[in-house]
Amino acid sequence: RDRGFRGVIVAPENAAEAAVVDGLEVRSADGLRDVCAFLSGDTELTIAPPTQLGSEATAVNTEAILDLADIRGQEHAKRAFEIAAAGGHNLLLVGPPGGGKTMLARAMPGLLPPLGFREAMEVTAVHSVAGMLKPNTPILRERPFRAPHHTASAVGLVGGGDPPRPGEIALAHHGVLFLDELPEFPRETLEALREPMEEGHVTIVRARSRARYPSRFTLVAAMNPCPCGYHGDPSDRCECAEERVKRYRARVSGPLLDRIDLYIPLPPVRVAQLGEAASGPTTAEVRERVILARATQQTRSGETNARLGVRALREVAELDAAGTRLLSSAADRL
Fold first, then answer.
1. CA-CA distance, 274 to 210, in Å (whole number)?
2. Which of 23, 96, 214, 215 is deepest in the core (most CB within 10 A)?
C-alpha cells in the first residue's frame, strides 16, 4: 500500500493477515493457475473482507506477564527496569543463582507500552516471514519475548540460511531479547549482536539473495559473577581463583558491554524476604508511568532516550556544571 498498489493476491492462509491493512483489495488464490486465469479474465478470485481488530490490536497479555510486585526484594533492580522500559535501554543483571534475574527479565514485556498498530504490523511481518505466525492470527498484539538458549549459534541468533530467514534478534523486534548466562554464549555469536544493536536492523547477504530485517529490541542480559555463581557472596562459598573470574567475565567483550546502558548488581535474596507480602508498584502502575514517559519522548524528539543522536542529546539533556563535574570525577576515579 505504501508503494501505491491498490490490491494484492495471496494464499488463502494469508488473506486475513493481509486484510488488516486498510486501502488494499485482498484476493486469495490456491495456486498460480488461478492467478493466471484471474488476470486473463477467465475467473474471479475471492475478496477477503477487511480484518476487524478493534482495540485488541494494542492489547497487553496481562495474564502471561509476571507482576513486578510479586518479586521479593531487589527494589533497586525494579527501579532500573522502569527506567529501561521508559527509555528503551538495554540492561545487564549480575548476581548469584536465585537472585531473581530470570523473574525480572520475564516481567519486562509487561512494563512496555502496548504495541502501536504500525509496530504490530512490523512484528507480524517478521513472524510471518519466519513461518511462525499461528493459524487464524492475522496480527500479533503482544510484544514478543525471546529467550534463546546459550547454545544458540550466530545464525540462530542473527538469522541466515538460503533463502535468508530471520533469527532471534529480528523475532524480538519491538519486544524483549533475554540472554541468560551471557558468558556461556559462543563469542562469535555475541559479537554478531553488536551491529544490529547499533543500527536497529540486520542485513543477511547470500549468493542469490539479500534480506534486511528490523531488530529494535530491548536486550536484557544476565550472568553470574563467576563460574560457580557465588563470587562476592557473604557466605564466602566461592572457590573461584581471581584469574578464573577474570577469564569468565572476559568472555563478554568490551564493545558489546558498551552497548548495554544499565548494569545492575543483584545481591542474594534473604530467606526472610521470600515470606514478605507483595510490595512496591505493580506492573500495571509502572506501565502507566512508562507510557507517559514515552509520550513525552515522542513529543520531544520522536525517539526514545536510548536512540537519541548526539545533537538531540545535547538539546534535551545538556549537562549543568555540577553534572559535568560529577561525571568527570567518576571517569577519572573509576
1. 51
2. 215
* Rounded-to-integer distance, Cα 15 and Cα 26, Å: 7
* Whether 100 contacts 280, CB under 8 Å: no
Closest CA to 140 of 69, 25, 61, 39: 61
In sequence order, which residues have a C-beta less than 8 Å from that of residue 130 and are 6 or more positions away? 165, 166, 170, 171
CA 112 from chain centre, in angstroms, equals 10
CB count within 10 Å of CB 104 equals: 25
| Mutual angle of helices 75-87 and 101-111, in 10-degree steps | 40
> Using one digit for the tens of pLDDT, what is the confidence trace for 51-110?
877 554 445 554 456 888 888 778 899 999 999 999 999 999 999 888 889 989 999 999
Contacts of 93 (CB under 8 A, 6+ apart): 77, 99, 101, 104, 105, 220, 221, 222, 223, 264, 266
- Taking 90 as the threshold, does the pLDDT of residue 209 lie above it? no
235, 228 Cβ separation under 8 angstroms: no
Closest listed residue to residue 224, CA positions, set 203, 209, 238, 204: 238
Contact 232, 95 (CB under 8 A): no
Mean of all residue pLDDT scores within the chain: 88
Out of 15-19, 165-169, 242-246, 278-282, pick the least confident: 278-282
Q: Does residue 145 contact residue 218 with C-beta atoms inside 8 Å?
A: no
Q: Which residues contact 44 (CB under 8 A, 6 or more apart)?
A: 38
